[in-house]
Amino acid sequence: MTNHSAYFLALGSAILFSGASVIFTRFARSHSVVWISTVKNSIAFVAFFLSSLLLHVGNQESWSSVSGSSAIYFLGSGFFGLAVGDYFLFQGFRRIGSARTLIVFSFAPLLLSLEGYVLFHQALTMTQFYALLFMMACVWTISYEGFKKSGHWEWRGIVFAILGVTLDNVGVVMSRKGLDLSPDTNAITANLIRSFAGMIPLLLAAAVMKEKVWARFRALTVKDKFTATAAAFCGTYMSLTLWITALKIGHIGSLAGVGSFNPVAASIWEWILGKKRPTVYLIAALILFFSGFALLLTH
């Protein structure tokens, strides 16, 4: 697969995750951040485990392909990115609103580009730089619309948002490092390790906070159980599979730019599910994003 394939994989990941995020947000409000984070990571871990087991039995992969060093990086990536990082991002949403959190998050491509250059010698070309600017402008546009509607600045929320973005970036870099050290490792195996590291601390946190995660899950209606499970499967299992595959073959900074489609895609999902008309801001954000995406494809 070429780098162009990586961009489409990352775009698919963003679309799946953003759609699931609409559902995750609803459960976070009706239950708690720790509860939905634990549920989604646990369901994803089971899916990754069964997939990895089937591939292993069918001789499609070997768990021995993961070196000890890679396993440590994948464990760290899951802990920092899927557990702690996601927790802080959700807390940022809760305290200062999604629009303000996304403004912070929009700077992730530049940060990852710098890390990619320092750690993996992946320099940005001028074409990639302009593409990232278009994609960042897309996030600012969609964030400005939300900025006018609700939310307020509050220092704890800003700190949570910055911590969430930073830890998410740490997770991305550690994943890429683990893949580089074990190039024969596929996305399923890498995410099995990552989801395990993301699930355990959340289960412990839920136990300390007396969340009674699975008792509350069993108390859900059949429809809500199916909804939560489907969101975890599509938004975590499938999304992470596409994302790690893209990360294995693509340019870190550019992929982070494609990942900035998340807030726009989330607005599209809300528009579709809520049967609302698209706003001028949403249309402008789409034009900006796909202008940047087209630049990446011409590179």
Q: Please, could you describe this protein's structure?
A:
With 299 residues, the chain is mainly α. It is 84% helix and 0% strand. The chain is globular, with a radius of gyration of 18 Å.
Helices and strands in order:
Blueprint: H1 3-30, H2 33-57, H3 68-105, H4 108-120, H5 126-149, H6 155-181, H7 187-208, H8 213-218, H9 222-249, H10 252-259, H11 262-273, H12 280-298
Helix pairs in contact: 1-2, 1-9, 1-10, 1-11, 2-3, 2-7, 2-9, 3-5, 3-6, 3-7, 4-6, 4-10, 5-10, 5-12, 7-9
List the defining traits of the structure above.
single chain, 299 residues, mainly alpha, 0% strand
Provide a concise account of the structure shown.
The chain is an all-alpha fold and 299 residues long. It has twelve helices and no strands.
Structural class: mainly alpha
Cα(first) to Cα(last) distance is 15 Å
General form: globular
Strand content: under 5%
Low-confidence stretches: none
pLDDT averaged residue by residue = 80
- The H-and-E topology, N to C, reads as HHHHHHHHHHHH
Strand count: 0
Approximately how much helix is present in the residues? over 70%
> So how many helices?
12
**Largest sheet geometry:** none
Whole-angstrom Rg: 18 Å
